[in-house]
Amino acid sequence: MGAIPAGFESEAGMLLIGGRRADALIAEAGDTPLFVYDLAMVAERIRRFRVAFPGVSLHYAIKANSFAPLLSAIAHQVDGLDVASAGEMRMALAAGMDPGDISFAGPGKRDEELRAAIDAGVTINLESEGEADRALALGRARGVRPRLAVRVNPDFEIRGSGMRMGGGARPFGIDAERVPALVRRLVESGADYRGFHIFAGSQALDAAALIEAQAATVALAARLSDAAEVAPPLVNLGGGFGIAYFHGEAPLDVELVGRALHETLAARPAVLGNAGFAIELGRWLVGEAGVYLTRVVDRKTSFGKTFLITDGGMHHQLAASGNFGQVVRRNFPVAIASRFGAAGEEEVSIVGCLCTPLDRLADDVMTPRAEVGDVVAVFMAGAYGLSASPQAFLGHPPACEMVVAAS
Ligand SMILES: *Cc1c(COP(=O)(O)O)cnc(C)c1O
Description:
The chain is an alpha/beta fold. The protein has 11 helices and 20 strands. Bound molecules: pyridoxal-5'-phosphate.
């Protein structure tokens, strides 16, 4: 399995999260399964970004985790929130974010969603020419200048990135070659043109690949702006910073990426001279800060194999089950919370309580012996956990969520 992220300690064998004992957190929440998010770890990530990327704005892509207490803590520390539905837009506004610092991307925005964004003064990242027509018409009908940016489908993608969202035929963004004409039309129609959104991939751990993609993104933004003869106020360079979920993966060298981007921007073409630049991150900010705690309800053997069966599973933590974008299932880091740091004694498979073979939390891992009642901690659970899991599947109770503040 992958390495447990740095920053988790123990007290008398009990896992500490944000300096608090896991058993005390469960008692406070009332029950397992429970997601705990350590705000200090998130703040540390934000601090690290600020040092590595001076002068570059930081946006949080809230689809990674929109739990309200976490979101309002983050909203006060970043420069923008990126949302992908009117529901997420309302969450971002409720978290106290200035509408001018919210951008709304995502394919298939309905008219009522466009209207809500225009009324709120949120920037719409246009995903198609048809959406541009509808947004312009809605703006005219309401007598307001809509804030519009263009999401570009780039003609490249981050090498080796986990999830491909650019390069070739995609439902996201507008093909680069058609963008200059659209930008001209937005400006001529009197829209408040906000610039570009160019997202080339996710879950990249290779600094060189990210550096190359960022340089290509800046070059593309310059080329499109020159062709349109319009300078963009903001270029959202996408994100794609990955985290090391699995055995053998090395963490991303963010500082190296920051130094390279600094050089790229220092040498940027004149048309981008007055542009601001933003990076939008989801999992890199919150993924490692979350732990999913689930209790062992049964222990059994089958054909010589020991199973720990828990009260949680893929309905809360789909990604750990291997069913969220993985091709070959690999184990997220796990531990027995009450014996944190103890040596492995037995090989077990940890599964959830859903009646499907898909519901696996860890296959064939060495753990200290765990009995019924012990708690399993699944790490790397802060991003794409509860918000990305099929909670209604099989009718089990929802998970609890809580944040722990700086210790
Ligand atoms: C999902 C998404 C993100 C966040 O991706 P992470 O891998 O969590 O950083 C950022 N931007 C866009 C456009 C996205 O769709």
